[in-house]
Structure formats: C-alpha cells, structure tokens
Sequence to fold (390 residues):
Amino acid sequence: MSFRSRFSGREILYKHSNIKTRFLTSFGMTIKNMAFLKHIKPSIQKLETYSVKGRPLSPELIKLNQNENPFDLPDELKRELIEDFYRQPWNRYPDVFPMHLLEALSKHLNLPIESIIAANGSNELMYTIGMAIIGKGTKVLIPTPTFFLYEKIVRVFDGELIEVPMKSDLSFDVEAIIRAAQAEKPALIILNSPNSPTGQSILIADIERILNETDSIVIIDEAYIEFSDKPSAATILSTYDRLIILRTFSKAFSLAGLRIGYLLAQPVLVSQILKPKIPFTVNNFSASIAIKLLQKNDLVQERIRYIIQQRAYLYKNLSGQNGITVFRSDSNFLIFKSKNEASVLFERLLSENVLIRDVSSYPMLNGFLRVNAGTEFENNAFLTALKKYL
Fold:
C-alpha cells in the first residue's frame, strides 16, 4: 500500500517502512490510524491542497503575484467604517442573505434583487453552483488555460471535465467550444472573461453564439471586468435564462481581504442556485464596507484608471526588452515569457523582494510568468529587478 499526500506544500510518498512509521508517529498518528482514508472520496485524495508560492507579506516585499488592487482603503474611510461596525451588535447573526447589500447592488446594477446572490467571495459561489449542478459524471466544459478552481470543483463533485484549448494566440476558440459542447452536451460551460491567467476576453457576440448553439448553462466569470474596455455579459442577461455572471469586490474594489462576491442571473435560475447555498456567509462588517464602496464610485474609478495606465506602462517596458514576449491584457495583470527559465527568474526576482507568479505549469504556458500592475513604485522595482537578471 502507498499513497500520496501534501504536507506543507511538499509531496511525500508514504510507504510501509520505519521512516513512514517515525513520520506519522511524530504527528501523533500510527499506521493503523490511517484507516480513515477509506472514508475520504477518491476524487478528494487525488487533489492537491491549494498553495501560493512566495513568502509572507512584509513592508519590503513588492507583491505583484495575486492580481490584487495595490491600494488599500483610505484611513479616514476605514475609521468611519470601523466606528459604524462598533455600533452594530456582534452577538447577532447577519441576515441569512445580506438584504442591505443586495439592495445596494440592485440599485448599482439596475437589476432586481431576485437576480442577485451575494456570498463570501465568488469562489464560494462557484462551489454553490457546483452543488446545484455537478454530480457524478456531469460534464463541464472549460477552455484551457484558465482559473484553476473550475477544474478543482469539477473533481470535488466527481464531474467529468471537457477541456478545450485556447488558440495559439491564447484567445478563446469559440468554434471549438461550440463543437465540443454539441458533441459532449455538458451541463455547464465556464468562461473566465477576462481570463486568468491569460488576460484575454471573449466577445459578447461569441457568448451569444455559445448560448444559442448549445443547451448548456453558461457561466461568465467577470472578476476583472472593471479593467476591460469590453462590455459585460450583463448587457444580455435579460435575454438568456441559462446565463450566470460572477463578480467580485476583491480586485477593482480593493476588498480581497474581506471576501465579497456576487452572482447575477435571471430570478428563476437564482432561486435554484440559492437552495444549496450555505446561509450567513456574508458577515456584517464586509457587507457594510461593500455597500459604502458602491457609494464611492469616484474613488473606485480613479483607481481603476490608474491601474489601467500602469498596466500599459508595464506592457510598454516589457515589450521593449530583448528576449521578452508579452501578451496584451484586458485585466489588471500581464503574462510574459523570457529567455530565462521561468522558475529561475521567479526565484531571482524573489531574492530582490519582488514576488510575481510562475504560471508555467498551466497548459500552453510553459515558461510564462504573470505580474499584476501595482503602483508606479512597485512596477519600477519589478522592472529594475527584471532587467538585472535578463
């Protein structure tokens, strides 16, 4: 008997041996105690625990690896929000579903409350959709490369993954998506637009083609839509009852640490997705801040414009370097490839306290790295370190 496990990000192969016994005993376990594994789903045992390579946040670290907004909320706004939260009762549950936030989103988006679900980040909503739709053998189509979570959720719920590669320029291969969907008849098609980690968008006309030429439920994950000049799929939401749109406050709204996301769909579909959803997942503090930020549109838009300018600055400087291939992006990040091995360049930049993302393990992205647009200071620190090692 042998099995693989993940511990502290390092893969360890356990076998019947004295080494295995000593390792397990040091953690208060014995060989006999491992019998619990027979009760863990095989699909879960095959998965890896999510981790992000890097180092803990510190003042000297230039952190450009997780597509975060480089700007925290202003101090005066933070104090205002904390004082407001201080006056709220902490011993009471929040709403089952955060009604005040739903009302604010309804007004902001000009959509009925019945078309919106708010949650503890859009990742929670992906799991909720999985609970509602994906069972053993359920087919789910995703273009690749794309956000890792989609594949993981399909595996967790024992679904069957249908992968459709992007074109060589990393754009969506709409014809191939439609052909695969017509042949395989997936229950769900998941499109990340702008796509992570490539930054490419799918056109609204192509989304409509997919909806019109298949009978699948189609998810458009718009986590980065605020940084794109392409229109949102929300413009066609009223036309299609099989369309789901995911959004987040983590990127453009600077709330990655407070976990707020939301879903848009027609009310009949929303009513079904709500059934398996875990209640009380949006805490009062996060909901209050999200509501306040929806009222601070000038601040949010100013920061979005700045990030788009810095993205252009990064693209110009990267494309001007010998040995660098960089792709244009509709998001707040860029992917690029250098003549250096990706893992080596990643470590060398990290030695200069510059943390970016090695995405070379993704399909079609061998040798690629990803960097998100930070402040001008952060971006120059990255470029300076990069030039040192090219």
